[in-house]
């Protein structure tokens, strides 16, 4: 056992050419921590409301201000990333990669004016609704947990839908709650509208 430790220590402490393997390992470890911290800080910044509003101030940010998710009696408020970015790390990274197409559209001017934005609104909404349907409205469920719903405090229609279609998994939140925070596009051909 001691022989193995001595061999390992000699390998780590002896210089390969200019720097010891221990120095390089420690340096790599510290550089990894710094990289991870910077990467995580950058990812969290892209989840902030100021980051989202830097591009969306004149379109969808104005729309959400009149909704229950922005201002309500309890003061609990959702920001953009609460509804558009999953909270789990792997899902969040996948969503960030998908969002790079949206950043590209903004940079190239495809949605730089309100007219251009409205021309693509249905396409963008369809893509977002499909994403949310595919992940079973994960972002909604980060705040709205089915098992804690009090059906007696809901309208009759909501209580019926939640206790049947949502309970049996045949529908997910976004199936019924399209336009909950943003202006709807032309809904011609969309089920239920």
UniProtKB/TrEMBL annotation:
<keyword id="KW-0349">Heme</keyword>
<feature type="transmembrane region" description="Helical">
    <location>
        <begin position="21"/>
        <end position="39"/>
    </location>
</feature>
<dbReference type="InterPro" id="IPR051174">
    <property type="entry name" value="Cytochrome_c-type_ET"/>
</dbReference>
<feature type="binding site" description="axial binding residue">
    <location>
        <position position="177"/>
    </location>
    <ligand>
        <name>heme 4</name>
    </ligand>
</feature>
<feature type="binding site" description="axial binding residue">
    <location>
        <position position="84"/>
    </location>
    <ligand>
        <name>heme 2</name>
    </ligand>
</feature>
<feature type="binding site" description="covalent">
    <location>
        <position position="80"/>
    </location>
    <ligand>
        <name>heme 2</name>
    </ligand>
</feature>
<dbReference type="InterPro" id="IPR038266">
    <property type="entry name" value="NapC/NirT_cytc_sf"/>
</dbReference>
<keyword id="KW-0812">Transmembrane</keyword>
<dbReference type="InterPro" id="IPR036280">
    <property type="entry name" value="Multihaem_cyt_sf"/>
</dbReference>
<feature type="binding site" description="axial binding residue">
    <location>
        <position position="182"/>
    </location>
    <ligand>
        <name>heme 2</name>
    </ligand>
</feature>
<keyword id="KW-0472">Membrane</keyword>
<feature type="binding site" description="covalent">
    <location>
        <position position="55"/>
    </location>
    <ligand>
        <name>heme 1</name>
    </ligand>
</feature>
<feature type="binding site" description="covalent">
    <location>
        <position position="143"/>
    </location>
    <ligand>
        <name>heme 3</name>
    </ligand>
</feature>
<feature type="binding site" description="covalent">
    <location>
        <position position="83"/>
    </location>
    <ligand>
        <name>heme 2</name>
    </ligand>
</feature>
<keyword id="KW-0249">Electron transport</keyword>
<feature type="binding site" description="axial binding residue">
    <location>
        <position position="102"/>
    </location>
    <ligand>
        <name>heme 1</name>
    </ligand>
</feature>
<keyword id="KW-1133">Transmembrane helix</keyword>
<dbReference type="GO" id="GO:0046872">
    <property type="term" value="F:metal ion binding"/>
</dbReference>
<dbReference type="GO" id="GO:0005886">
    <property type="term" value="C:plasma membrane"/>
</dbReference>
<feature type="binding site" description="covalent">
    <location>
        <position position="140"/>
    </location>
    <ligand>
        <name>heme 3</name>
    </ligand>
</feature>
<keyword id="KW-0813">Transport</keyword>
<protein>
    <recommendedName>
        <fullName>Cytochrome c-type protein</fullName>
    </recommendedName>
</protein>
<dbReference type="GO" id="GO:0020037">
    <property type="term" value="F:heme binding"/>
</dbReference>
<dbReference type="InterPro" id="IPR005126">
    <property type="entry name" value="NapC/NirT_cyt_c_N"/>
</dbReference>
<dbReference type="Pfam" id="PF03264">
    <property type="entry name" value="Cytochrom_NNT"/>
</dbReference>
<feature type="domain" description="NapC/NirT cytochrome c N-terminal">
    <location>
        <begin position="17"/>
        <end position="187"/>
    </location>
</feature>
<keyword id="KW-0408">Iron</keyword>
<dbReference type="GO" id="GO:0009061">
    <property type="term" value="P:anaerobic respiration"/>
</dbReference>
<keyword id="KW-1003">Cell membrane</keyword>
<dbReference type="GO" id="GO:0009055">
    <property type="term" value="F:electron transfer activity"/>
</dbReference>
<dbReference type="InterPro" id="IPR024717">
    <property type="entry name" value="NapC/NirT/NrfH"/>
</dbReference>
<feature type="binding site" description="covalent">
    <location>
        <position position="52"/>
    </location>
    <ligand>
        <name>heme 1</name>
    </ligand>
</feature>
<feature type="binding site" description="covalent">
    <location>
        <position position="176"/>
    </location>
    <ligand>
        <name>heme 4</name>
    </ligand>
</feature>
<dbReference type="GO" id="GO:0019333">
    <property type="term" value="P:denitrification pathway"/>
</dbReference>
<keyword id="KW-0479">Metal-binding</keyword>
<comment type="similarity">
    <text>Belongs to the NapC/NirT/NrfH family.</text>
</comment>
<feature type="binding site" description="axial binding residue">
    <location>
        <position position="144"/>
    </location>
    <ligand>
        <name>heme 3</name>
    </ligand>
</feature>
<feature type="binding site" description="covalent">
    <location>
        <position position="173"/>
    </location>
    <ligand>
        <name>heme 4</name>
    </ligand>
</feature>
């Amino acid at each position: 056992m001691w022989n193995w430790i001595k061999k390992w220590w000699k390998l780590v402490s002896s210089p390969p050419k200019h720097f010891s393997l221990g120095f390089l390992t420690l340096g790599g470890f510290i550089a990894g921590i710094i990289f991870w911290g910077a990467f995580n800080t950058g990812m969290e910044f892209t989840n902030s409301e100021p980051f989202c509003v830097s591009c969306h101030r004149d379109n969808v940010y104005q729309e959400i201000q009149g909704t229950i998710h922005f201002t309500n009696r309890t003061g609990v408020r959702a920001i953009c990333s609460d509804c558009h970015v999953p909270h789990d790390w792997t899902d969040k990274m996948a969503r960030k990669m998908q969002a790079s197409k949206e950043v590209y559209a903004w940079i190239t001017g495809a949605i730089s004016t309100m007219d251009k934005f409205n021309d693509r609104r249905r396409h963008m909404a369809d893509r977002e609704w499909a994403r949310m349907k595919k992940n079973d409205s994960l972002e909604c469920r980060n705040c709205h947990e089915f098992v804690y719903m009090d059906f007696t405090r809901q309208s009759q229609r909501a209580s019926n839908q939640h206790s049947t279609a949502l309970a049996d998994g045949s529908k997910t939140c976004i199936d019924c709650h399209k336009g909950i925070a943003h202006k709807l596009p032309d809904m011609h051909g969309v089920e239920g509208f």
